Hints:
Elements: H1 2-11, H2 13-24, H3 36-49, E1 53-58, E2 72-79, E3 86-92, E4 111-112, E5 115-117, H4 121-140, E6 148-154, H5 165-170, E7 181-184, E8 192-197, E9 199-208, H6 223-243, E10 260-268, E11 285-294, H7 300-317, E12 323-331, E13 334-335, H8 341-354, E14 359-363, H9 369-374, E15 381-383, E16 398-400, H10 401-418
Parallel strand pairs: 3-6, 3-7, 7-15, 8-14
Antiparallel strand pairs: 1-2, 2-6, 4-5, 5-16, 8-13, 9-11, 9-12, 10-11
Helix pairs in contact: 1-10, 2-4, 4-10, 6-7, 8-10
Amino acid sequence: MLDALAGQIESRRDELIALTRDLVAFPTVNPPGEAYTECAGFLGERLRRRGFEVSYIRGEGTPGDNDRYPRTNILARYDTGRPGACIHFNGHIDVVEVGRGWTRDPFAGEVAGGRIYGRGTCDMKAGIAASVVAAECLIDSGMPLCGAIEISGTVDEESGGFGGVAYMARQGLFSKPRVDHVIIPEPLNVDRVCIGHRGVWWAEIETFGHIAHGCMPFLGDCAIRHMGAFLDRVERDLLPGLVGRRTDMPVVPDGARASTLNFNAIHGGMSEDHDGLMSPCVPDSCRLTIDRRFLVEENLDDVRGEVVDLLDGLRRTRPGFDYAIRDLMIVLPVLADRDAPVPKAVSSAIETILAKKAEIICSPGTYDQKHISRIGHLHDCVAYGPGILDLAHQPDEFVVIDDLVHSAQVMALATLDLMGHDAFSR
Length: 426
């Protein structure tokens, strides 16, 4: 059984390459959410032809959803007609902006040196392609499969997943009894099983001032200088302590086992959405977005309180200092049981296909497992896919073709195992 199934997937290597390239050709850049409907339609039509029941679900009312950029998700289900578990493969179709530094066309899916290049090859359209071909090979194998296989292509994961998995989870589409097990083909390396991720707190901090003519700044109060005082406090009083906080979660890379804080964006003064020079004004507002990644051992109230304490301290001691703070996104850490069915099935399949022991890890950043766990209350969920973690969001992003094939083989074997077949008998 194993040799035949693995061989069937190997024989579809060219098909795996072609499907990955086809998906990459859709420039599903988020924001704003380009080509979601077209990409979802392409994927849905392929699965419909293979006997899946296909539906399209728009995340109406979610951030960014509008008639120009509808948040279109695709959900496909193949029911064997025999009682058994439902195994769901969930992949996000959105990709981040292209950015600078590319030496190849980011949406051409160029094949060279045993790799496929393009935005989304690694994160995570190759993973979607692997799950589709794995499912199709299982269906074509003639084995008496039990239960159901679902495949979803969802949106907005790169901006929190609220128009995709979160929306669908609220409709009961990632909960029992409909779904039992979930595999998310995120790029965590082909020999790793990811069982969770750190928490995240995004917040916008705004400092205030008083507008005046730029030639007489002493008549105003500069909000940017106030923000500079806060940045200095963070550098001096907060960041050094975060480095020493370490988690027992198996987060990779090693630097991400500590608490971290990043300044995502800062803007002060006049808006830049115009041509020409700006007028000479003392800025009365400065906004900073922070990205705080925290550990399962940390409490969210304490994480937030550390920042608020610095701000309150400046309010007491710095003349004219005032601020506002607004939560943008809160995600609690997620940690699945490594002895649950999905982690064990995927680990066993990795050992069989790659002849090496699987590494159990946690992700430095969040992904859609958070919504499946917190909203769907479905905890037997892992991330497993063919991409190399360090290549995500980079210029000249690529996926190794051998990894693509091996990951599809692992997904097929793990699915058989979760369906109750003895997947590892020869």
